[in-house]
Each structure stands twice: as C-alpha cells, then as structure tokens.
Design goal:
This protein has about 425 residues and is α+β, with helices and mostly antiparallel strands. The protein folds into three domains: about 180 residues, Elongation Factor Tu (Ef-tu), domain 3; about 50 residues, RNA polymerase II/Efflux pump adaptor protein, barrel-sandwich hybrid domain (OB fold (Dihydrolipoamide Acetyltransferase, E2P)); about 130 residues, Helix Hairpins (Orthogonal Bundle), CATH 1.10.287. Helix content is about 35%, strand content about 35%. The chain is built from three helices and 18 strands. The strands form three sheets. Strands 3-9-12-11-10-13 form a six-stranded antiparallel β-barrel. Strands 6-4-8 form a three-stranded antiparallel beta sheet, with no helix packed on it. It has a two-stranded antiparallel ribbon with strand order 2-17. A hairpin with a 3-residue loop joins strand 15 and strand 16.
Length: about 425
C-alpha cells in the first residue's frame, strides 16, 4: 500500500527540477551569446581610417579633374600648301627665337612673288603715265582758257569802241550789235572752257585716287604674300621646347596643317573639368587647390568655358607656383574649387565614403566595437565634410569605405 509523499518533499523536488531547467537555459543563452560574439565580424583598427568630429572652419568646395599643361604652347601650321624638303630640329630640342624648324618647297611661292612684283611695277608705271596724261590735258585746257580770256578782253574793248563811235556818229547800230554779239559768244565760250577745266580736274583727281587705291590694295595683297613666304621658312617664334614636328621628308602638307608644336616646359597651368551642375560655383577669380599625388598647390580660375559639353564645363587654372618640380606635362590632378567659408561648423575629415550631400550610414567607435549610426552630411571642402546631424563633437567615426559591412549593425574592433 503506497504512502502519501509529504508536501514539503514534493516542493523540494519541483524546486530542483526548475533549478536544472534554469541552469540549462542559462547555459544555452551564454552559449548563444558566445557563439554570436565569435561569429560577429571584426575589423582591425590598423586597416581603417578614422576621424574625430570637431568644430572649426570649413572651406566648402566642389571637386573636378584636371591635367597639367604647359603655360605656353603654340601650334605652328603650314602657311601654304607644299611639301617638306628638309627637317632641321627634332622633338625635345630646346629652341631659341628664330631657330629653323623645317624647310618647305617654296619654288611656286617665290615664282608667284616675282610675278606680283612685276605686276606691281606695271601698275606703278600705268599710274605714273595716267598722271602725266592728266597733267598734259589740264595744261592744254588751262592754256585755252588763258587764250580765250585774252580774246574776250579784246571783244569787250571792241564793244566799248563801237559804242563810242556810234555815239559820235562815226559808227552804226549794226556794228555795235555785231560787236556785242561777238563779245557775248566769246564770254559764253570762256565760261564753257572754265567749267570743262574744273570738271576735268575733278575727273582726273578721282582717276588718280582710284589708281592709288588699286595700287594700295595690290600692295596689301603683295605684302601678305611676302609675309606668307617668310612664314613658310618655318622658325621658332620664341625660346621654347619642341614637343612635336612632322619629320616626314617629302610629305605633302596642306595650308593650315599642323607641322610643329613648341611649348615652354618651365611654366605650367592646369586645364580642368567639372560637372555642369556646379557651373554657378566656378567663376573667374575663384581660388583652387590642386592635388597631384601628395603635392598640394594653390591657384586661381582664369578662364571658364561658357558652354557645357556632355554635361561637363571646362576651365583653366593659373598656379601660384607654376614651376614646381613635381609638375609634368600631362600629369592628372584633383581640382578643388573653393566656394564658401563657414566658421564653427561641425565637421569630420573627408574620405572615400563621401559622395555628396545626403544621408549616410557610418560606424562610430564605441569602446572595442564599431556601432552603426545614421548620419546626415552637408557640403564638403578639400579636407572636411560638414555634419548636419547624427554626430557630436569628440566622437571618433570611420572615414574609410565600409560598403562590405553595409548590413552589419556592430563590428568588433581589434587593436
């Protein structure tokens, strides 16, 4: 016959059972936490870049790309259609002003110059002949006018004499009328000769001016041909370095075709490009920071292309130190155009994480962990990015690219 288990004994048994369950549950929880800690991704401190949020001056800027080019570069084109006969210089040569570069076949151009010189002499002789003919004709007319003036004076005297004779009864009215008619006819003929002389003077003056104008126009064309011929004897216009030359002897070159390029490789500037969305922030006179590798140089925008091409605007930068030894023609650079200066701005160092103003998920150092934080960033400068929300001064934030941990909320930080 079974006996009843005391109540106290039953409670003791239940307590032991629940104690074992609690120990097992705690062990499981500890194991889960341990496994989670073991499986949590970790990052070495030495493999990331960090920056401390602080308050200070922020120089906002927009970034573009650039290329170092010589401060002076000149393309030398062929002034005539010809062929290359000789080449006197080679690429890399240091040239003085007047150094011959190459020789073109100038036989046709020289023949044309001689023909034009003969034509000019012919035109000059023709102008001289016209001037002499005009002078002779005018002299004849002037002489006719003088003779006619003498004849009119004689006829006037006859009129006076006939009137006097008629008044004393020795003449007749008919002879007076004949004398008056002859005088009036002579006077009209004199007037006609004077008008003809004046007209001929005007015509001859106009003809002479026209001849002089024709000769002047011809002289300008002739002078242009002479300058073209002189330019065809291709020489360096200044002290520079020859960076390109067409050295194919016998090759035909067209008028205006590039045959050589010279450049001053002791001074440089930067040609830059930037997205046209920043067009209103790039203006002549804007300060610029140029970064070539680890070298930073200051400069100023001196020219901005007014039109956008494929979403890009171009501009030129004059460097403060344009003969820096780090500069090389063709060297690619980063270009940062200063837009604004803000005092007492909350900022963090810039880095590859920044892609423009907006919302970001960043990791903040918290003891031996990296904790994800939602951060809102504003405009950037060359060295710093403005923090609008999500960080406080003194917090240390990761500024490396952490896209490989985009879905992790915490990371273990290894020293």
């Amino acid at each position: 016959m079974d006996r009843e288990i005391p109540k106290e004994e039953r409670h003791k048994t239940i307590r032991k059972r629940w104690t074992r369950v609690a120990i097992i549950a705690a062990s499981i929880i500890v194991a889960i936490i341990a496994v989670g800690a073991i499986m949590r991704p970790s990052v070495k401190l030495s493999s990331i870049r960090t920056g401390v949020a602080d308050r200070g001056t922020l120089e906002t800027s927009v970034a573009g790309t650039g290329r170092v080019v010589p401060a002076f570069e000149q393309i030398i084109n062929s002034p005539i259609t010809s062929r290359i006969v000789e080449v006197y210089s080679k690429e890399g040569d240091t040239l003085s002003a007047g150094t011959p570069l190459l020789r073109l076949d100038l036989e046709s151009a020289e023949t044309e110059i001689k023909r034009m010189a003969d034509e000019r002499r012919s035109k000059q002789l023709e102008a001289d002949q016209t001037r002499l003919n005009n002078r002779t004709m005018l002299s004849d007319l002037e002489m006719q006018v003088k003779v006619k003036e003498m004849d009119v004076n004689r006829l006037r005297a006859e009129v006076v004499n006939e009137r006097r004779l008629d008044s004393i009864g020795s003449g007749t009215g008919e002879r007076v009328r004949q004398a008056e008619f002859a005088f009036e006819t002579g006077r009209l003929q004199l007037q006609q000769l004077r008008e003809q002389l004046a007209n001929e003077r005007d015509v001859h003056a106009a003809t002479s001016k026209m001849k002089q104008l024709e000769l002047s126009i011809f002289d300008k064309n002739f002078g242009e041909k002479q300058r073209t011929l002189e330019d065809a004897r291709l020489k360096s216009p200044r002290r520079a370095t020859l960076t390109y030359i067409n050295d194919q002897i016998g090759q035909q070159v067209s008028q205006g075709e590039k045959v050589a390029v010279i450049a001053d490789l002791s001074r440089f500037k930067v040609t830059a490009e930037i997205a046209d969305s920043y067009a209103d922030r790039v203006a002549v006179g804007s300060r610029v920071t140029i970064k070539a590798g680890n070298t930073e140089l200051g400069g100023m925008v001196t020219n901005v292309t007014p039109l956008s091409k494929n979403g890009i605007i171009s501009f030129s930068v004059t460097l403060d130190d344009d003969d820096h030894p780090r500069l090389r023609s063709g060297l690619k650079t980063e270009v940062h155009v200063l837009c604004d200066i803000r005092d007492d701005a909350l900022r963090i160092p810039t880095g590859p994480y920044y892609h423009g103003e907006g919302e970001y998920e960043m990791f903040v150092i918290n003891g031996d962990e990296l904790v994800r934080r939602h951060v809102r960033l504003g405009e950037s400068g060359y060295s710093f990015v403005e923090v609008l929300d999500g960080l406080s001064p003194g917090e240390n934030v990761v500024i490396s690219d952490m896209k490989d941990y985009a879905h992790k909320n915490k990371l273990t930080l290894k020293k």
